[in-house]
Structure formats: C-alpha cells, structure tokens
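Lab meeting minutes (informal)
Scribe: AK
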Amino acid sequence: MIPSEGWGVLHLFYEVDRDAAERDPNAGKRVVDAVASLEADGHQALAFVVLGHKADLGFMALGPDLARLQRFQQELRTAPLRPTYSYVSLTELSEYTSTEDDERARLRTEEGVEGDELEAKLVVWRDRMAHYQEHRIHPQLPRKACIGFYPMSKRRVAPDNWYELAFADRKRLMGGHARVGRTYAGRIVQLITGSTGLDDWEWGVTLLADDPVALKDIVMEMRFDEVSARFGEFGPFYTGLVLDPADAVARVGL
C-alpha cells in the first residue's frame, strides 16, 4: 500500500512480558531480525529504550509501503512484547511553506534587490527549498542519542479556534513559529508528520538530539510562541535513548 504522497510513519511502544521473555531466549534476536529485514526492504527504523514507565521499548519506523510497515508491526508481536501505545502518520509538506512569490516579495522589501540579483537569489532559494521539501517527504533519520515524540492538534474551541482564522493569519503565525524552530538547527532534528484522519491527533512531532536538554529547551521556548500558547493541544510525551537494536533489546531484558 503506497501513499500517493509521503511515507508512512509508525511510532510503536511496548512493555516487556517478563515471564514470557524468560521462557523465550530467542525473543531479542527476532526483534533485531525484524528491524534488519525492514531496513533491507528500503525502510528505516530507530530502536530506543523509553525513560519512565509509559513503555520499555520503542520503535520509529518509516518508509514508502504501509503494508510493509504493518508487517513489521506484526513481526514485533511474535516477541514477548505488549503494546502500550502507537501512533500512525504520514510525512507531508506544510501548507504554510513560503512560495516563490513570498520570497520574491521578501527580497524586494527586506533586502531591496531587483533584476539579475533578485533572480540569482531566487535560484539559490529554489535549490534550498527543493532540499527542504525532499527532507520533509522522504526524510533520512540521523542517529542521535535521544528521541522525543508527542502528538498534537490545533485548538478548535472559541475564541481560539485555529480553523476559524484566515489562511493569511495562520500562515503569518506559523512563519513565526518556524523561525523559533530554526534557531535549534544543529541541536535538534525535527520531523513533523501529518495524522489528521489517521490517528487521534492531527500531527506527530519527533525530535532527535544528542543532548536531552535540547528536547526540553525547544518545547519550552515554543510554548511561549502564540501558535502554541493560544492554539496548541498536546498529547503524551515519550522520551527515549536511541540504541542499536541489539543493545536496545538487551537493555530491556530480551
């Protein structure tokens, strides 16, 4: 099952059935083999141990074929793992992304450029946007030490109903929100995936970093931005330590 746009994304969380794990010495190998098989089929997966008691073990899996992701989900169930939470989403482009007309107007008003200089700057902008859009739709997950995940939606209760705002106002607000996020380039890799109509919330937010403080800092700073302060609704937060699959299953006793 191949979506017409974007890749499928699964966030899967499990607790270990300790009694069953003691009777199944090959359980960890089956989990490691499931990850390796998924990656051999052109998909990606991150394994992580979860901090706190919401889960023991987590996986983020993504790729072009929803049926292959579902098979990976089922393969994990052959191990002594009890699901505690899951989330389904698709990679997507933001509807609020700047257009070429937006950038042309910005260059004229903010930088005062025209003619050949303006066109040269637009060539650079087009190349940058092509790379940005490719990363949003077909991301390559980096190996970072920590992962944070939470689902979120925009508020739909008066007087702060996001969907009653004019598109131009929503785009302006999201532009400011994005500028805050860009200040964390180099500290945080952010992946926003769409889940409206697919799961209980509207977006899934995945944050990858080498320093757990960065996970806290970006969410705290975003809370003061109007988009979050007035219009944000947030689901449960999961935080984990990203490990090689074999290390992850050993850490949780498989």
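Next up, CB showed the second protein from the same session:
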Amino acid sequence: MSLFCCPHCAAPLERGERAYTCPSGHCFDRAREGYVHLLPANRMHSKMPGDDKGMAAARSRFLRSGYYAPLRDALCALALAHTAGLERPAVLDAGCGEGYYTAGLYEALTAAGRRPRLAGVDLSKPSVRHAAKGLAEAEFAVASVYRLPVGDGAVDLLVDCFSPLALEEFRRVLRPEGAFFYVTPAARHLWELKQVLYDAPYPNREEAVAYEGFDYLDIVPVEARLPLPDRQTIADLFQMTPYYWKTPREGARRLAELDRLDVTAAFRIHVFRRRGGGPF
C-alpha cells in the first residue's frame, strides 16, 4: 500500500509496476529507477527545481563515505525509540535528498524486526533518482514539502533534515502522537570551513522554538570531527552546503587550494510529538 496520494484530488494512490494510479483515473508514470513525479507543472517555480545533478552527485559521494554517519546513527536510535510498539511504522523523509538517512532508517527498523513503510520526497529530480536507485524497498517522489502528496494523519514519524520547515503540512500528515525530528546546524557547524571561506565568519543561530500543535520533547546534540583528506572531498562538502551559492570568489579560491581540512560537524536534532486530537 502506497503512502502517497494524488496531488490533484488527494485520493490514495495505488503503486503498480509501471505507474501510480488513483480511483479518479489520474495516472503518474514511474521512472526506470522506480520514483514518481508528483509535482504538478503549475506548482513548479522553475524548470528544474531543487539541487542540480552536480550538487546531488557531490552530496551522494560525501555521505556514502560515512562522514555524517554519527547523525544517521542518532536519527536511527531515536526512530527506534519513538516507533516502539509499531510493527509497520509509516515513515516520511521530507526533503530526502539522495536518500542517505532514509536508507539508514530502513536498515535500523528492519534489523529491529519491524516492517516499515518508508517514503521520501524532494524537489530535486536528480536527488530523488539517487534515492530510488539505492533503496528499492521505499517509495520516492519528486514533490514539495509545502504540498506533500500524503494523506491526513498517515505518518507515524516524519524526519526533516536540513529541509524547509513546512509546519502546517507536517501537522496535517502526522497522526496524533506521531514523532517529528527536525535537524538543524549547531552554532559552530562546519566552523573551520567557514573560516576559510569568509573573512569574518559568524556562528549559526541556535533556537529552541515551540511550534503550535507539537510538544517539544528533546534536543539531541550530535558532534563529530571530520578529517577531509583531499581536494575532492572538500569540494563535495562545499558544494552540498548553502555557502556554495553565496561565497566570495576569494574565499572559494582559498578553499580550492587546500589539500586537507579538518572540520567540526555539529548538529541538533529537535524532537517533537504531534499533539493528539484537534484539527490538522
């Protein structure tokens, strides 16, 4: 049974071998890799929204090398704890990128004897293509987190890792008492990288914001020292960050000249629970 619903009429979608279909007759072809495009043309703000092929490839190379494994492990441990007692938890990775964390969640839940139903959405078609090729057991769609193709109250756990915070949609798709993990950068995340890129870097702002409709349960810190051994790895990390688009040329030149860089990865996982009862 698919977690996705029709972006036109909101009816449940049935996943077939070659297409997703709804009772109203809307049909969405599955790509060769298995993903589906559920972002209607009238909701696309550009021809190719989201990360391009180069950014998706850089992120995939970097994450496959295991540099952010401490964050993935922490998310998996939290997922096991917050879906305890659910044999078939429904998990949505909102802004899944190339599926690194989605795959980790699937492996952890199945290793614990669960039979999870996983779905991931992202605006970037190249990223979703990577995700679908790497995890055939989950379903992936090109879609916006602000218009999730998921039914009301259909999700037990929603994960947002460095993606836009679409709170109204997250409240809608989460079941009452469902869990929500929101990953943000800590104050000195990638500080050493920023010191190379900018003449006067400043720390990220850290906040603990209580959102309407959610109970704030915890903030879990995750930190690791990352030795980046060569120019390609440094370039991959740079390309997968927002700094790639807003760094002065001189800063980018300084970074390109480095053969090695040790950086600090510092994350915060904000853990919420969807309040029971009330409107979506």
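CB comment: The helical segments are 53-64, 69-82, 100-111, 125-134, 167-173, 191-197, 231-239, 249-256.
No objections, moving on.
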